[in-house]
Amino acid sequence: MLKKILIGLAVVLLVLIVVIAMQPSDFRISRSAAIPAPPATVFAEVNELKNWEGWSPWAKMDPSMKQTYEGPAAGTGAISHWAGNSQVGEGQMTITESKPDELVRIKLDFIKPMAATNDVQFDFKPQGTETLVTWTMSGKSNFVGKAFGLFMDMEKMLGGQFEQGLAQLKTAATAKAAQ
After folding, report:
1. Over the stretch 27-74, which tens digit does the pLDDT of each residue have?
2. Which Pfam families does this one have (predicted)?
3. Are strands 90-99 and 26-35 parallel, antiparallel or unpaired?
4. Environment class of 149 (CB within 10 Å of its CB; exposed 0-12, middle 13-18, buried 19+)
5. Domain annotation for the chain: domains and CATH numbers
């Protein structure tokens, strides 16, 4: 009887491994919001990493998160390191490309809770008196990431955080535009 149980568990484990291995390696999460402010105002909020403290959803998850900055204050080469609670983990963001009022590209390196490197991009498109901001993160999922994705809907979880961040970015940029 024990032998049959062990064989059954081995078969289930093998099937699970195959299902996980067959999951897509690439992922992409994207959200957009119209912000009633000029592109230059919204761009400045994203392009200067210290500004993220005012609108990033992860800053709200851990108000005591430790952040350090190096390189230029804004634009290409600006770097932010963070270390926080289990919800925000630890990592580094580096702006790799910055085109005024058009786009900001960021290399996002996670250290904890799970090592990963992702690409983040913010696009800014004028639409009358508003700016359409699109926040996209893409990357590769390793085996552990694929397994996690079977049980957690990363699109919904991170997409919701992007939506929250864009709403808070809207508040911050609208306030600055009114000044």
Report:
1. 789 999 999 999 999 999 999 999 999 999 988 888 889 999 999 999
2. Polyketide_cyc2
3. unpaired
4. middle
5. 20-178 (3.30.530.20)
